[in-house]
Amino acid sequence: MTRTRTGVWFVGARGNVATTAITGARGIARGTTDGTGMVTAREPCSLLDLPDVDGFVFGGHDIADRPLLHTATELADSDIVDRETLEAVADDLREIDGRVKTGTARNCGSAVSLADGDTLDRDHSVSEVVEQIRTDFADFVDETGVDRLVVVNLASSEPPVRDAAKYDTLAAFEDAVESDDADLPASSLYAYAALVDGHPYVNFTPSTGSELGGLRELADRENVPHVGRDAKTGETLLKTALGPMFAGRNLDVLSWDGFNILGNGDGKVLEDDENKAGKLQSKGGVLSNILGPNMHNRVRIDYTPSLGDWKTAWDHVHFEGFMGTKMSLQFTWQGADSSLAAPLVLDLVRLVSHADERGEGGVQKHLASFFKEPMDVAEHDLSRQFAMLESYVESHRDDADETVDPVSMRTDGSGIDADTEANR
Fold it and tell me: Could you tell me which residue ranges the Myo-inositol-1-phosphate synthase GAPDH-like domain spans (predicted)?
């Protein structure tokens, strides 16, 4: 494993997913938890020369002022963060909380006004917001001495951009920034601020992020890795595994209805129809690709406050077999949203860092299996997406160090905090 100190900057740093990822990473470093749920903790990805999780140094932006330790304690009360880990990393969370800066909520939808903190937007133009974000990135790198900074968007889902085509070139995007364009969304401003300074960018959400043509042009010009959109963690993961089964057996799926309930902050934001629109598109689109556009395919998402970070999806699949015999499949998926997402966040940081180290800029197509709506990849069959990742690993095997523990990321097992070690 590569002994580097990787800066990880979370947009939405005080949210449940970010808090779980930070707590879990520090738990790995402290020896209280392991890499269960991480794709990079098992072969084939464990054969790559990836940066160590215990070398991750965290910072971020948020518009809420609730401390990380408060969020982690609530997650522990919901049996998502284990108590031993919470106690072991409490001081780490307090230190990291001091590196969370005020962010932007520009065009994030009216539902995001639920946040209880301040935003950059109240007294800054678009160009000033971008400059402040870039300054925050630069200050973090200078103060921590990290070798690389990876920016990960974990903020609540934004409404879709009204006219994405007007940002199809980098010049058009930069002109929009300078002219204080009212339609530019926060996720794309963060993406621009990251890419223009050479920081890899991961869009874990359904928001626009680096999808705009001008930002793709920028990533290609600067040779910076970027990837997204909308991480695939639960119901949609099952759809991309089960859908190809029906197609492979030539069973005619007549309808596939999915009903989702969840209770965390994201669930509350998704009560707003504008914010929900992008999420419904990414969750529903995978089946049209696998089973064809004529099938009845509906997805519902409803907010159930009492569930907290837990979510439940119930799906009904109505299909037709030989001689028109109609049959059905029903399944229920119950999971902790943050527990499913957080290990994938750590995976993606490791994998885009690996690409950046080797000068592999642009869209990271081999990471399609992580996303509902992967950029530049039309294939949604999960097994074929996994094959893309395996092919990538095979092409990089000559670089791999197969003698080191795949997650822990220290050969001596000491689990010493990266910041502590740096200050010795």
Answer: 234-338
